[in-house]
């Protein structure tokens, strides 16, 4: 048997099988249970699977402490009580808990933020296991990073144990909007590959996964809703937002009538587009769980962001393996987290402005972010920090426009990369060309110096001197430099084309050998 948990099959084939198993749960409800009796209630209600754990998220919040993997004996008891698939939670980064859960035979492993994270740097490498993994996400970047690590099923994180669905809605809408942006780039851009690669770098995800997502218009794996679903209406809402199914944790067994509410939520997921059925199943369910208002929750109590730390600069530069980068905690790539210090600096300034001009005048100026070239220039003198001469400001505005035009139309990023690559490939030719360019500037500098010093006849004298003495040198160096530069460019392009052709033929030969069974 293969040591990587693929039974001798390739990792891609093993992932296809695991993703296919997750597809079987589509359109279903997965319920959190803490004992065999609750598991039987969930199965009778029509649940597609159950999540076995010792405490539901609401109890984990209330009791506090460190939340760990459940007792294997309890999980085995639940597995023996039902015929539907049984999932179990493991702590983020705790690969030994995952090994134990795989050994006792659970059907799915949830690497869950509801439990206390065991590793604040790495997630589990899920390709090493035969069991499919479920992982949470708040946005497309998190989802695709988890899929790149081997997750066969994705769910929104929401805020588990609160009964407040607002965070699950926010996360689902974020994923949908980011997928729509990627799809728009693919369909409407003049150069979709370059823009998609830039978007992949922005999200910190593999380009191939992002392109596959853009082509499909959805995640490559099933995407369930989780975190705060407590009523049939909540479940139908998440389904109409595009989820493939629903996780329900504390919302069922912390309510007044667990059996009736479980059946109602299953019916709501099945008939989520029929308001009449939704109205019927929502009647007489008893008291729902009390819940917690997420908007009033302290930041430290939010499970979706819990347990992760910002990386140090040394940590980032030492981490050269791309797969290790993909395994980093998501808060290290979260734009909201990265902008938080700036927002905290701006808040006192806004309060001072509201309190009046006198306090604003007494306070120190708000520090500005450092920009090499500002986006706009104020030439009216109204800004308190603007002491720039209007003529200089106007020149800088024109210069900024010219640079933007050159950056967009004359020297776009891919052309700059090609020129730099060629220059690095031919350092001697590049040095010669730069020297030639400097020499070509000498006559122009002499002309300008003459114009500034004397003007009139002196300009003509200096110009003639420049043309007669340095003209032949300029022409010779220009022709030679352009010839050598063109020769070097042609050599580089032809060599690159031959290398690609060789690699392409070699790859085709390998594929042919695979098809022939070699």
From TrEMBL:
Q: Which Pfam families match?
A: Promethin (PF16015), SOR_SNZ (PF01680)
What Gene3D superfamilies does this protein map onto? Answer: Aldolase class I
The keyword Lyase belongs to this UniProt entry's keyword annotation:
yes
Q: Name one GO molecular function term.
A: pyridoxal 5'-phosphate synthase (glutamine hydrolysing) activity
Q: Where is the PdxS/SNZ N-terminal domain?
A: 15-226
Q: Which reaction does it catalyse?
A: aldehydo-D-ribose 5-phosphate + D-glyceraldehyde 3-phosphate + L-glutamine = pyridoxal 5'-phosphate + L-glutamate + phosphate + 3 H2O + H(+)
Q: Where is the composition biased (Basic and acidic residues)?
A: 346-360
Q: Which CDD domains match?
A: pdxS
Protein task: Catalyzes the formation of pyridoxal 5'-phosphate from ribose 5-phosphate (RBP), glyceraldehyde 3-phosphate (G3P) and ammonia. The ammonia is provided by PDX2. Can also use ribulose 5-phosphate and dihydroxyacetone phosphate as substrates, resulting from enzyme-catalyzed isomerization of RBP and G3P, respectively. Also plays an indirect role in resistance to singlet oxygen-generating photosensitizers.
The entry's protein name is pyridoxal 5'-phosphate synthase (glutamine hydrolyzing)
